[in-house]
Amino acid sequence: MTALAPRARHRAERAVVFGAGTWGTAFAAVLCDAGTPTTLWARREELAGAINDKHENLDYLPGVRLPDGLLATHDPAEAASDATFVVLAVPSQTLRVNLAAWTGLLPADALLVSLMKGIELGTTKRMSEVIAEVADVPAQRVAVLSGPNLAKEIAEKQPAAAVVACDDEDAAAAFQTSCTTPYFRPYTNTDVVGTEIGGAAKNVIAIAVGMAEGMGLGDNSKASLITRGLAETARLGTALGANPMTFAGLAGLGDLVATCGSPLSRNHSVGVQLGQGRPLHDIQQPMRMVAEGVKSSESILELATKHDVPVPIIEHVVKVVRGELTPSQVLRALMSRDLKSERLDA
Amino acid sequence: MTALAPRARHRAERAVVFGAGTWGTAFAAVLCDAGTPTTLWARREELAGAINDKHENLDYLPGVRLPDGLLATHDPAEAASDATFVVLAVPSQTLRVNLAAWTGLLPADALLVSLMKGIELGTTKRMSEVIAEVADVPAQRVAVLSGPNLAKEIAEKQPAAAVVACDDEDAAAAFQTSCTTPYFRPYTNTDVVGTEIGGAAKNVIAIAVGMAEGMGLGDNSKASLITRGLAETARLGTALGANPMTFAGLAGLGDLVATCGSPLSRNHSVGVQLGQGRPLHDIQQPMRMVAEGVKSSESILELATKHDVPVPIIEHVVKVVRGELTPSQVLRALMSRDLKSERLDA
């Protein structure tokens, strides 16, 4: 991870953000605020039109005034033309299908940047792997952005830091420059695997912490779950080749703590409602936005099983999501089983 | 850190807890619930009498029914006689004076256990060092207990885990047995330095996180402060000989997250009020209980300076406590300066 250094900006740099959900919209505003001409692609023509007319995304980020320079479109060809940075912010499990429709439109030398935090069901691939495969580009052309970045707080221009990870440090530095503002400070890092595993697993751990909260447990129990959740995330990431120190940083501990502390997190909120005894389908129905952790819990468990890494908290979240155990059975199991096996030095 | 193993209990095991504040009282109840005959020493005769009469500590833990078997006394000789475990839970900066008055009363082979989280002003000694020096016992006779242990939640018997650290693993295991209950699970560890530094520094980091909260900043900023605060704590601890992994565990990350998340923490609450612009002397006056972090911030900074370890967050808390900087000046400084220097791999 290198310090932030001012860097000459190419005149032609331009970004497109595919996906006008909460984070895609908030991050498009960051790019504009950093001086990068940016287009936001929305699936629905009405939403793109409304963003252009009102400078507000009433569906996903109501109450936040978007930069005047931010243009929205529902035409992917128009959005992608001349883009130096192609930022992908669609639901993880739809990435493959969406990206396949866009690959012919993307400039040949663009850097593809993932804002997504999930693991693909069926393939257990990380988002950057799906991107490299579908777009048929080398890993050096794919970056990921992660960190303690609750979208609504960033849209309100509250101070936040993030990690831009890419095998190609120059590419990471170029993207870093394109999205640095006085309130948003990204750092570069070459640990793509650790950055993505930290981001994907924290959504699942946040569900577990939310369940404890929904059951009325306090900060001692929640802090123990966060501690042991980060330990199992680091164990999985390290088995996949990540640098263990990534999990002590912004994309590991930082992102996990922000998510578990916030009422703004959908994953945390799903967990709270599960802990209060509501069935999953009742919770998800009225949610316009996807709780990534619900789907990713299955794929992360599959990934961990393939690599023989025990992830007891994630495994128990899967059992609740499947309806095999209740949250109180799970917390009882974790409090006896996992505590027994905890080793600080393992 | 070893797994919890059932252990034969000596028939004569008996504990005394010196200090009937919130944590001393709550922990005395844990010992009783674990089946260890326990006496609670209170400075004031009225408080000891009220605890014996009402089975409640109205001053420090109102609303919590204490075990019938818990005896309180204000006579230190009566309290200490025949104790196998002498548990010390007085304000950190009063430990030296208090303990000096009791040393003649303590059984020769007792294990002295610190519940305190602070660094002595003037000497920059950890609590276990002060104990060994004043009681004139080897380090093997001194243990420390730490972890995500908000006293009120433990008094309500909510599930919590903790760390018992001692150079002598058998001594740690004996004390572990004496305080294990279905809701309180201690683990043993031989890293006394890391356990104590984690506990002392987190009170100061919690003040910084509280300041951010009091200024209206959200979970992204708080999570960044927690991440970087733990990194500087680990840097200091490692320089003093601690195992860096201790900071990723219950006595590091776990304790820090519980404290920073909780409205029950005095240190966190002092920070929130500082962040809202109240001067320190206005905050401390009505507080019956001490916010350890206010005093320890100075001694931890002195310790870090002695060992040439940069601790920017702790240093800035000291400047606010001294009235040299306002919380908003401090957060501005941290957001520019510290972010620039952050290295995940450092």
Overview of the structural elements:
Two copies of one chain form a homodimer. With 346 residues, chain A is α/β, with parallel strands linked by helices. Chain A contains 15 helices and eight strands. The first copy, chain A, has helices at 22-33, 45-54, 76-80, 95-102, 127-135, 151-155, 169-178, 192-214, 219-239, 250-261, 266-275, 280-284, 292-306, 312-321, 327-341; strands at residues 15-18, 38-41, 71-73, 85-88, 111-114, 142-146, 160-166, 184-189. In chain A, strands 3-2-1-4-5-6-7-8 form an eight-stranded mixed sheet, with helices on both faces. In chain A, helix 4 runs parallel beside helix 5. Chain A is globular and about 60 Å long. The first copy, chain A, starts with 14 loop residues before the first strand and ends in a 5-residue tail after the last helix. Mean pLDDT of chain A is 91; it is low at 1-7 and 338-346.
